[in-house]
Amino acid sequence: MKLSKSLITLAILAFLANPVPSVSQILPTSRTQLETQLSSLPEVTEVFRLESTEFEEKFRIRVRQLVNHDDIVYGFFEQRVFLMHVGFDRPTVMVTEGYATAYAANPRYREELSRMFNANIVVVEHRYFGESVPSPRRWEFLNTKEAMTDLHKIREMLAPLYPGKWIATGISKGGQTAMAYRTMYPNDVDITVCYVAPLCHGAEDGRHEPFIAGTSGTPESRQKVLDFQKEVLIRRDSLMPLFEKYCDSTALSFARPVGEIFDYCVLEYSFAFWQWGTDPGDIPDLKAADRILFAHLMKVASPDYFVRDTPTMPFFIQAAKELGYYGYDTSPFRFKVTRTRFVPEKIKKGLFGKKKEIKDSLASPAGKWVTKKYPAMELKKAKGYMKELFLPDFYKPRFNRSLYRLQRTFIKQSDARLVFIYGEWDPWTATAVPDPGKPNVLYYVQPGGSHRARIATLPESMRNELQQQINSWLNE
User: Fold this and answer.
1) Which structural domain range is residue 288 located in?
2) Do 132 and 231 reside in the same domain of the chain?
3) pLDDT tens digit string along 66-82?
4) What's the total number of domains in the chain?
């Protein structure tokens, strides 16, 4: 829906006034009326009907949001929201997505809580992701305070349509978002369900590395993972041509030399392996051919993760600023490997008189083959890698622990109804929200689980207990 300048002005004034119509004014009684009423909301700039095999009605809507909710001078952006309708008398699940929401357009999409409790769904795309990106992108307004206010505005806007119980939920970064939303707006929803949501206290938190070394998997499988990483480094000379060809053929570019990115892939391997629940039986025999080892490394820890300018760059800005992330332990890989390498002769100062002659001599230098011990890794250090690899050169924020403290205190002191679900072997569980041991907090860890832990993956006894308790809360 394209607005004229006069209508835009009226919409802005209506947005600032933020009138909340009564339920009797807005509650539709038919499909046509629902679409009409959504279109009439002053904050909504577009309503587009979508196909669905799961819901009677499904829409993609765009909501006009302030870039800075405290100052209109920075303008507006349009936030993409998906609304899936079951009934006005049913609960509503708000998916507080941490990234883009294109997946929600799939006609078969249905979130598991909505399926379990026959609830409506509102999926909100996170600001600065997908199609919800302000122009220009001012990174100072990509922060939790502004993002949670986005959610609050949408909740207020839809409250007259859906007066029943509300559940906020999200997975991983979306779970972090759900937790922060409940912390900053504790009365907006009745229940919060956080899947595999970390609570980090630093840009490189420090708890993930010892968790991978001593908790993820069994001792035998952890050793198998470590042995594979070491074997890849030992075979650097034969694997690097394959790695470089892979990067060239896929047009990958990095902020650091490709030899260092090779090392980062080796470091990332163990984290990604346990995060996504890879079967230790998939690790190739260490005597397998180079191509077999290389294919497995690329399957688990591909270098495309380390490309800087991607749609996920906003995430790394948030992680560096206030959400936190993980570091790498390089100590197991500080060993030397016997290699034979060509060492060019050093050019003595003054031997050549012109720069071109020096350049030509270096292009095909004289030298000799030398066999000696070389470091297994070219990488000198990994500390600070996130800012160096992922953040734009002009924006390197310092980590602020205030959000971590705010959420930790809220969970300890609040009577809010919260649910936390984690996977036992997922490295992110190293930074899980501590179980406060309170009756209003349901806390479940899937045995042997990964970052894919959900209600559906829990053991039957846990799953039934959790479903019964949520159902009880919804029916109060």
Assistant:
1) 208-334+376-390
2) no
3) 999 999 999 999 999 99
4) 3
